[in-house]
Amino acid sequence: QAQPAASTPPGFPAGFLWGTATASYQVEGAVQEDGRGASIWDTFSHTPGKVRNDDTGDIAVDHYHRYKDDVQLMKALGVRAYRFSIAWPRVFPQGTGAANPKGLDFYDRLIDALLANGIAPWATLYHWDLPQALQDLGGWESRDTARAFADYAGHVAARIGDRVKHLFTHNEMSAFIELGYGQGIHAPGLKLPPRRLNQARHHAVLGHGLAVQAIRAAARPDVKVGPAENINVCVPVIETEEHIRAAERATRELNAGYLTVMLEGRYTEAFLAWTGADAPTFTAEDLAAIASPLDFVGINIYAPHNYVRAAPDAPSGFALAPITAGFPHMQTPWLKVGPEALHWGPRHVARLWDVKDIYITENGCAGTDTPAADGIVYDTDRVMFLRNYLTQLQRATAAGVPVRGYFLWSLLDNFEWADGYASRFGLHHVDYATQKRTPKLSAELYREIIARNALA
Ligand code: GBH
């Protein structure tokens, strides 16, 4: 009787960059310290009824004071890169004007601690904590916010570009605009009518483009820049050529206001037809700035946006197949389990826009993580999730898709925006009463995957 052969786990390309990620307001705390100004998330979380249990980021996981210990947690995982974000209101408390002399001190210390431990710092310039003073002037509805963002980006790039070689402009324009200015469930909590919402969308992409230009002007030439965008991934229902091409076309259209305009320098016909009389006002110069050449494209992928079929008779050539009510999801209902998204997302990006360097800048899941009697957090749901998603990522790299690295969200349980502390995304459990960090089972799995550079 033949025995099954011992399996060699499929590997990732040599030099594949394994990392982990966080964001300022979700982890730092210390919101009153060292001259930080208020952000829209301070205002929003302190408005009763906006965040689950009225949680705030006032203390969060105290990363501002515990960063040295947290760097040791990263070192134990074996990650070679840490994606964190810089709080704009620490650097410019009023958004513009005079820089706070202490504004970058914390990041200087963090960057130095990372480098001393062999971990590359990858910094995001905007992960949603807009200075409240700028919101008071219209926030992303105002063109001036895009300009102010570029000035801030140039300032930071000039200051830390000696040590930080990878900068991200915005984290998930689509999320902060759609949720913050469209649905009202994130800061600043607005539900704008279509015309104003489209203009805010345009200012977000414009801010990205102007920031790329400002960084190029201010930083050394070896500083690389790109976005970290929450791409809507369309998965072909069946992996045949016709459905794959349809999913690719759908991905282009479903990201038309964000990634597509950034990479093509124009709004698609379908997008302009859809916005109609409510289309944003923009110039040819805006589009040129928005399409400033990038060094890499970062994409955050959690769940498939849609499954797609070819529809030869439809003008678009595709039809969306709904995510059904019974579709499996992780602890947070929005996080549908569709590991193929991690294969098709980067694959569509590479083929649609000929992108040569792609990073998965976020992927992970929430789980009901409670330490067991033996002190271990048995997050088998997250272990299942990571193994299946990374299997699909490996498949993409094996097919030659130029994915260069992966940042797992998140290093620690943290302030999950409107969900407050109820949703835990960390590889490390945080006891919020004591701030004690405990590695979960998934941290052990991730350490093993990194050590082997292969599935485990
Ligand atoms: C990312 O957003 C963020 O970059 C990161 O800060 C965040 O912690 C992480 O993902 C996990 O959420 O409750 O059904 O109305 C991903 C985009 C935005 C998707 C919030 C889920 C809530 C949808 N997420 N959204 S719902």
Automatic annotation (TrEMBL):
Keywords: Carbohydrate metabolism, Cellulose degradation, Glycosidase, Hydrolase, Polysaccharide degradation, Signal. Its EC number is 3.2.1.21. GO terms for molecular function: beta-glucosidase activity. The active site is at E172, E362. It catalyses: Hydrolysis of terminal, non-reducing beta-D-glucosyl residues with release of beta-D-glucose. GO terms for cellular component: cytosol. GO terms for biological process: cellulose catabolic process. Pfam families: Glyco_hydro_1. InterPro entries: GH (IPR017853), GH_1_N_CS (IPR033132), Glyco_hydro_1 (IPR001360), Glyco_hydro_1_beta-glucosidase (IPR017736), TAT_signal (IPR006311). Substrate binds at Q26, H127, N171, Y302, W409, E416, W417. NCBIfam families: BGL (TIGR03356). Belongs to the glycosyl hydrolase 1 family. This is Beta-glucosidase. It comes from Vineibacter terrae.
